[in-house]
Amino acid sequence: MLEMDTARSTPRDTVDAVPAGERAVPARTSASAGPAGGHHPSQRARWRQRLSRFDTKASPYAYISPFFIIFGVVGLFPLLYTAWVSLHEWHLIGGQGDFVGLKNFQDVLEQRFFWNAVRNTFSIFLLSSVPQVIAALLIAVALDSGIRAKGFWRMGVLLPYVIAPVAVVLIFNDLFGDRYGLVNELLGWVGLDPVQWHKDTLSSHLAIATMVNFRWTGYNALIFLAAMQTIPRDYYEAALIDGAGRIRTFFSITVPQLRATIIFVTITSTIGGLQIFDEPRMFDQYGQGGADRQWQTLTIYLYNLGWNQKNFGRASAVAWLLFLIIVAIAVVNFFVIRRIASREEER
Amino acid sequence: MTTRTQSLKALSAVAVGLLALSACGSSAGADSSAPDPLGTTSGPITLKLATFNQFGYEDLITEYMATHSNITIEHKKAATSNEARDNLNTRLAAGSGLSDIEAVEVDWLPELMQYSDKFVDLTSPEVTGRWLDWKVKAATDEEGRLIGYGTDVGPEAICYRGDLFEKAGLPSDREAVAQLLGNTWDSYFAAGRQFAAKSEVPWFDSLGATWQGMVNQIQAAYESPAGDVIATTNPEVKQTYDAVVKAGITDGLSAKLQQWSDDWVASFQDNGFATMLCPGWMVGVIEGNAKGVKGWDVANTFPGGGGNWGGSYLTVPTQSEHQAEAKAFAAWLTAPEQQIKAFQKVGAFPSQQAALDSPDLASVTVPFFNDAPTGQIFADRAKAVTVSPFKGPKYFPINDAMQQALTRVEDGSATPEVSWEKFVADVQALG
């Protein structure tokens, strides 16, 4: 809550401060020019006064306008245009056809692939985000403790993030081959049956989640690590004197202190998780999410509708449905965060 | 039509705006320096040529630039045909950004034919009778406009492992194997059962690959020329589906390895299967995947007569500012002499009548395939193609749905009956 208060008070201060200073300047000018000028300077002073008032009111908007102009062109306009397209029959090459109202939405919602894609998206998202956040936390704790060659290890966890996602998928695909893959080979050595990575729904989600985790865990670990280093060391020393063990300090000091960071990481991985595309698209040679759509996510479904079937109307309908899902989840996030924040205040 | 054009313009404006943001200045500058869109003047110009995979054009481009001093050629190569298709579709929709010459693969040509007015009519007395009839027919629209010059074709033969045949007590030399396989699907599957009785190795790679050969012999499989979707009601489609499932699953002839999957590629090193349908360009693929494996050979026969799989065209989009020069260059590239050079370079089999009878072609042999005279074999196979199957605008998505239906049967995630029902539902969902 402390940050919010400062944030609110800062603009009020500046608004008060700036006009006061500006008002002082014209007053001084008119005083010095007064004996020589008479009527004219005071008019000019009023004009300048008006101008400076306009400046203080308008310039903040001018300063923030680049973001909103760019957002309008590349964010808001496509959003509205997509809505327009979704209400029509629309062919990728042929362009606009008849106005069909909500028929595209109805068609999409009636198809088994849509709900299947929703399920897959959430399944892959949960399988990747939950272990990812937990693993990242543990790695960050390990990096935060007194290990040797800290720089080396910290660089090391970031390395997977530097590799292009498609390259990651190509390598992992080789490992996850159903018949000649290394993973199944290893499972065979310990006496387990080979897993049908490209057939079973859950196995395919696990394989894809593994690729996502490989890429993002290190990145999130570094964010956690940065946050951990801002926790005052006194807390740990005090806990140590009180006789708390490592596990106790982790749950009673580290995790509560990282609450804001955990929320941030969760939100970013939610957005990324719902838009997952590269990994499932590259998971087999067809790129459509499997013979029975075992791993077809919403973005893959959207892409197939638009670029394979060339049905832009339906693809746009899916894009809007995805948008609405993300908005719904953002609202849930918002309330969860508010509850956490208010609980903190109670303390 | 006007509303369409307007909306296209709006769409293209967006796309161009976005492109401008991501900096595309240099090529725009080069284009605007061209004085005349029809290219009647002979100032220096730059022609852009877009291909994918391997067309074997590198040396030919140098050769052409040497004889045409005012023309500079920029060659853009996409890694896969799918990538090229996405690029072509997107820029066609945007209304700008295409190259002067765009290579198009036969499988996605049908979906472009309904927008044939976006491509320049390439008909010209100079090229009449240059290609195999069915090759020209597929690229000619209802009004008789020819929108693509044929480059290569994929006449199909059967590639087989002679060593595995021998182990199973079957003949292994080319002529005897061609006899054994016969020229119907029944005889091909019968030979497979004979082989399976003596060997552990599966007969062919996958249902999907075999389906590809069979469906290309059906005159109108998925859509009627009148424009109706008949895929789910056409008795020929269902019969073929049942036949391939019986051979591959019931009789156990399929290795269940989806073409181009990692497992499929790896299986070449591990006696994955004994035969496969083999268009001309597949020879190079097998040689690459099966490096170090001995025994591959090519039999001069194909079930059901002849079959074509793949092959491409060069088109000139109406977006091009140098249509005349582009057309002339495309005509030169697809002349028999040039395509034979491309065949020698990368194995893209020529679609030109004159090339098929050329001694330069007939003399080509491949050491990896037991010195098989591939030039002669594939020339014979190209002449055996009689059916030019009708492919409507929905061919691509419907065939995808069928491939997935067959994959479901192979990986066991659905019985043949259930998988067929899902296929029917998928086709209906295309709307």
Automatic annotation (TrEMBL), chain A:
The keyword Iron-sulfur is annotated on this UniProt entry: no
Region named Disordered: 1-45
Biological processes, Gene Ontology terms: transmembrane transport
Subcellular location: Cell membrane
InterPro entries registered for this protein in UniProt: ABC_transporter_permease (IPR051393), MetI-like (IPR000515), MetI-like_sf (IPR035906)
Recorded topology in the membrane: Multi-pass membrane protein
Recorded coiled-coil stretches: none
Protein name: Carbohydrate ABC transporter membrane protein 1, CUT1 family
Organism lineage string: Bacteria, Bacillati, Actinomycetota, Actinomycetes, Micrococcales
Automatic annotation (TrEMBL), chain B:
Range of residues in the leader sequence: 1-28
UniProt entry tagged with the keyword Signal: yes
Protein origin, superkingdom: Bacteria
Pfam family, one: SBP_bac_8
InterPro entries, per database record: Bact_solute-bd_prot1, SBP
Key words of the record: Signal
Protein known as: Carbohydrate ABC transporter substrate-binding protein, CUT1 family
Species per Swiss-Prot/TrEMBL record: Intrasporangium calvum (strain ATCC 23552 / DSM 43043 / JCM 3097 / NBRC 12989 / NCIMB 10167 / NRRL B-3866 / 7 KIP)
